[in-house]
Amino acid sequence: MSRLSSIGKPGGTDERDTNFFVDPARTSVNLTGVVARRSPHPTNHTMTLWLLGNQLSIDAAPLANTDEVLLIESYEFAERLPYHPYKLTLVFSAMRHFRDRLRADGYDVTYIRAESFAEGLAEYAAAAPGDDLVLQRPTGHRAGERLDELAADAGLTLTVVDNDLFVTSRDEWDEWADGRGDSYRQEHWYRHVRRETGVLMDDGDPVGGEWNYDDENQETPPDDWSPPETAGFQPDELTREVHAFVTDRYDHLWGNHDLDEFCWPVTREEALQALERFVEVRLPAFGPYQDAMVGGEWAMDHSLLSPAINLGLLDPLAVVEAVEDAYEERGVASGAPAEAVTREGTIPLNSAEGFVRQILGWREFMRHVYRESMPELSEANQLDATRDLPELYYSGETEMECMSEAVGHVWDRGYAHHIERLMLLANFSTLYGADPHELDEWFRFAFVDAYDWVTTPNTVGMGSFATDVLSSKPYTSSANYVNRMSDHCSSCKYYHTKTTGDGACPFNALYWDFLKENEETLRGTGRMGLMYNHVDNKSDEEWTEIRERADDVRAMARAEEL
């Protein structure tokens, strides 16, 4: 199976760049945690690889060309936002564990704890004057340029090379996107990447004859269903030490300050165990129930691998190939009942394809859209939404059962699955008319797997429809969707069948008010014709009641009485 090139020549940047440090060969990794690593190759000059906290890959190509590594644990950034304690604990613990792993593998690792990258680089320069630093391109907009400037201020030379922690290269995207204008569609990109990688392909055609089995992945589990246990990891002494430091160092953090729910892998070995657990136990029913929400179940059958992948502890293509290999061994046709699949230990195609689409489709897509659309994406607000994000996102206090569950999941563990993110947290914010950039900021500090490159296109673009770069219609819905895909409505004080009056679900009035408030922008937008037929069929009296109820809902939210 071929991999897309990870050595593409970047365009549209002032960063110094070179490819000659990059070895395209990859290390071999199996699910048991055994890693076969190349021995470092000698170079003609002193080169130190500077690894950031989300570049913790033992397979990073530049590691093959140096045994000198720099890691800087910087604290200044965490002052800017009230990050979830688990997010900071995860990053710093993973960095320190990675430091120890590299040293055990024979690398000479300089590990600096500093208030800022500027201070850390100055400390390093004092100890190693004239050293040349190599950095894999950061994912944040213009981050490479900013770090280049900091290195220069410290008297260091910084060379930026390609980041090989994604499946596709900048060149690959640029070639694909050429001539498509400023709007991109994930499905087209996804099919392209499938063809190029050969994942779930059969002689040029998709396995099973279809590219996308999303229609079969919208089931809700039976009443007696319960998900398999997660591959939770008990914090070791180093993680506990980091967590104590984090909670003592920062007094403004949002989220669970106790370590009782921390379950995230902090090492490559733990991440591989989590991958194996998902493939063996959780993948079979992942597809049918991936959009479902069940009270008291925070993980469902989701992989929970995104934090490890986004840190570099897992290679995204290796994860996809593990799923593909499992399907080849235990696969059955799509549409098999989830209960039967779980019992028999087989994997339906819709489960395998649904997961592959999350990685090769959405993850790769969002990374490139972010790169292409910044900085405009960070400022987009085509619906002119300027209201403050409701206080319930910060307090978690609401009698809306679905929102209480979703915010509670994030508070407890720094995580909620993708439908809770899109169709509850982002949907409610959008219908409410909240500023998409405040929502984006909330996602960035609240989620353990959040980074600018993934949150901004997801929340500003897809979730808030602040731009049409990503989609032709807003991802919004009334309570009908929540009721169809969850059991939340049955235990909620609000009635999902009511739009107006006391006890009416807030989603309903807000939904219709949203369509009315943004009619000039949305009417005529792709796939919105049916909804505006419903808009046109409502009487003036109905609209008066709807808009009054929407105003009441917003007032209740502001008063923290929703």
The coarse silhouette is globular
Biggest sheet layout: 5 strands, parallel
* Percent of sequence in beta strands: 5-15%
What's the architecture of the largest domain, going by CATH? Alpha Horseshoe
Low-confidence blocks of residues: 1-45
Strand order of the largest sheet: 5-4-3-6-7
Describe, in plain words, how this protein is organized in 3D.
The termini are far apart. It contains 22 helices and 11 strands. It has 3 domains: 28-161, 3-Layer(aba) Sandwich (Rossmann fold), CATH 3.40.50.620; 170-367, Alpha Horseshoe (Serine Threonine Protein Phosphatase 5, Tetratricopeptide repeat); 392-558, DNA Cyclobutane Dipyrimidine Photolyase, subunit A, domain 3. 46% of the residues lie in helices and 7% in strands. The protein is globular, with a radius of gyration of 24 Å. The chain has a 5-stranded parallel sheet with strand order 5-4-3-6-7, sandwiched between helices. It is of the alpha/beta class and 562 residues long. The longest helix has 25 residues, at 349-373. β8 (201-202) and β9 (205-206) form a beta hairpin.
Fold blueprint:
Blueprint: E1 28-29, E2 35-36, E3 47-51, E4 68-74, H1 85-104, E5 108-114, H2 117-127, E6 132-136, H3 143-153, E7 157-161, H4 170-177, H5 186-197, E8 201-202, E9 205-206, H6 237-249, H7 268-289, H8 306-311, H9 316-330, E10 331-332, H10 338-344, E11 347-348, H11 349-373, H12 376-379, H13 392-395, H14 401-413, H15 418-432, H16 436-446, H17 452-463, H18 479-485, H19 506-517, H20 519-522, H21 529-537, H22 540-558
Parallel strand pairs: 3-4, 3-6, 4-5, 6-7, 10-11
Antiparallel strand pairs: 1-2, 8-9
Helix pairs in contact: 1-6, 2-3, 5-11, 7-9, 7-10, 7-11, 9-11, 11-17, 14-15, 15-17, 15-19, 16-17, 19-22
